[in-house]
Design a protein that fits this description.
Helix content is 33%, strand content 27%. The protein is α+β, with helices and mostly antiparallel strands. This is TnsA endonuclease-like protein.
Amino acid sequence: MSHNLIEGIQLPDPSLAQRKVPWGTRFHFTGQIVLGDGPGRVVRTESHTEFTCCLCLASRPETAKIHEQVAFEWHDADGVVRTHYIDFLVEQTDGQRVAYTVRPEARVSERFLDEVRQVARQIRASGFANDLRLLTDKDFDQTERFNAKLLHSVRQPDPEADAAARKIVGDLRGIAPLARLADEIALEARGFRALVRLIRSGHLRLVNHERIRPAAQVFKGGLV
């Protein structure tokens, strides 16, 4: 797909949402995220919970692509055909398609859960996706949220720093703190950000479930 050019800058592809997501409202958060490498694609969100869930889903190594507000027709107990808009449809690296509906835990009622169960059964039976899962604001801890934001913030490449980081990590044996690797790169903050990009791509992995910081221990996760 071609991209619009403004003074040499490639703009991201537009959102593929199948229903209109409001740009703004006085009553709750709305926003958008650019996902993917290069110019990327705009993903619209209409709550802060959706925004957080999107960042966390995007940061997971099994996530290949994310589509938002995907329409799925289902029928209720009375046989009435309705449209459920899936908040996020994730294409995974293993080929599975997992649909997610997002709602703050405080607004999850038995009636809503019953509807989600009905839609989930029909999604699986139709082959539209492998599963439909409910995500709430309680599904991601503070560490995962912090790391997801950091991983997203470094998505733009830095060719010099990235090449230096790949060379250092290519020689890595065992585990090492990010601070030591950044010192070996010798590009200060640029080197640290390049290492975070290697975590983002799966070439480096954290030893423990912890915030990505200079003291965090990492090991080589794949060919660099």
